[in-house]
Amino acid sequence: MDQLLRVQNFTVSSDGVAAGEGQSLERPFGHDVDPGQLFFWAGATASWPNRTEPGGSRGLDDYFARDFSHNIGAEIMGRNKFGPQRGPWNDHEWRGWWGDEPPFRTPVFVLTHHERPSFTLSDTTFHFVDGEPADVLAQARKAAQGKDVRLGGGVSTVREFLDADLVDTLHVVVAPVELGTGLRLWDSPEELTDRFHLEVVPSPSGVTHHLFWRK
Amino acid sequence: MDQLLRVQNFTVSSDGVAAGEGQSLERPFGHDVDPGQLFFWAGATASWPNRTEPGGSRGLDDYFARDFSHNIGAEIMGRNKFGPQRGPWNDHEWRGWWGDEPPFRTPVFVLTHHERPSFTLSDTTFHFVDGEPADVLAQARKAAQGKDVRLGGGVSTVREFLDADLVDTLHVVVAPVELGTGLRLWDSPEELTDRFHLEVVPSPSGVTHHLFWRK
Question: What does UniProt give as the signal peptide span (chains A, B) (predicted)?
């Protein structure tokens, strides 16, 4: 089997915005975006990795939520998904937004131009890598040991790998909220249909799942 | 986490028929039902376990197809899903419809009133068990080592476990074909909504996914 590069559960507003501007330690999605506006659909499912109480839905959205880890052997993420710092890593004590038990449970390759030693939190090891998308993907594929690689975002990272034509499948969730300004994945999902098949699946929760795979 | 008992990818006609009558070695779904009328949706996906060539869709139907094995540690099936024989097992040489590499890759518990020794084909071990549904489920849960148990069918077996109120989730696919006569899961999916939440999700392939989970 091929090792796919997959975007999963990536959520944008109805106008294609994935995050606001002005990211900070307190506001990972920017000063004017509440992540709950986008990710409510996932938080309501039984399989949401951060769920601490029993319960949750087991309908359509749950299939997407639980596919998050299925056959994934590594993740690639942009630096801004790891933390709000810019420039050299001055503080090695702060080890990312993801807590002591990050939900990835695989090697994670964080894109950065600045060196930093790898470290492990629970089942997740963060590596800090510089390089072209194709080179980073080759590293992640090797670490994934035959499994697929998740392209975790943020939006700039997804666009960079799309521009390099390295993405095999995308699952993009469009939430019923208009954000207006911010970091945009697309003006319209149709922008990708020259290279990808597209299925559009409305969920009872109010979001619309967009499933893309290579033609 | 609980160990769920899950029905997955179970496909019926628009009038609720899962199999025809007159099952034989040559016609596992009965003399008047071509399995392609029901299962075309799964065969078209990239993740169909019996796929021998590359390709296949990676849209909505593929999420369901690939969830088949996800977090499943054992299967329970009725005798008629294993083979067309009735009564005592006279021929131990014939080892079921599933070939040398059955797609289950877990312990499988085959319901039968007639003893037969367990055997292994590739990653799948078939056990032949008699007993009440709750007792068989307890055996399967133990074998599943913390993972969920798939209730594989056929239709009589699904109904038997529903009657015993042992099923936690069901994914039932309704195919756009009317069969008229045969072994019926339901007259209408609404029959289950007293005990289960229901989401109905149409697929571009023409089938409609029905997702049930306990209230």
Answer: none
